[in-house]
Specification:
Layout: H1 12-58, H2 63-108
Length: 109
């Protein structure tokens, strides 16, 4: 019969020391993971905030865009009024010119 291989003997105090080292390592890893998760949560909040802002800009719902739209509408209404007066003045000038031509022809004969 052969003698069994004695192998490696690890004492209970060595096992305890190794488990304590493992606990410390796991604690450090856990704290790093917690910090990472906190940062990821902050990043998700920032991304969410940016998404809300981008959607508001895309839909024209910002205060600045509403003010600009109101200003453009006011300018368009004034421009429309000016155009209306210009066309009326052009028509009046045409009528007056035609009438003056007829009167002048009548006077020249």
């Amino acid at each position: 019969m052969t003698t069994p291989d004695p192998g490696v003997y690890i004492s209970p105090s060595q096992t305890y020391a190794e488990v304590q080292n493992l606990v410390k390592t796991v604690s450090r890893i856990e704290s790093k993971v917690d910090r990472f998760l906190d940062e990821a949560k902050d990043i998700r909040q920032d991304v969410s905030d940016h998404e809300v802002r981008i959607r508001a800009i895309e839909h024209g719902n910002t205060e600045r865009q509403r003010a600009e739209t109101a200003r453009i509408d006011a300018v368009e209404s004034r421009t429309t009024g000016v155009e209306r007066r210009v066309w009326a003045a052009t028509g009046a000038a045409t009528i007056i010119g035609t009438g003056a031509g007829v009167v002048l022809q009548f006077l020249i004969r």
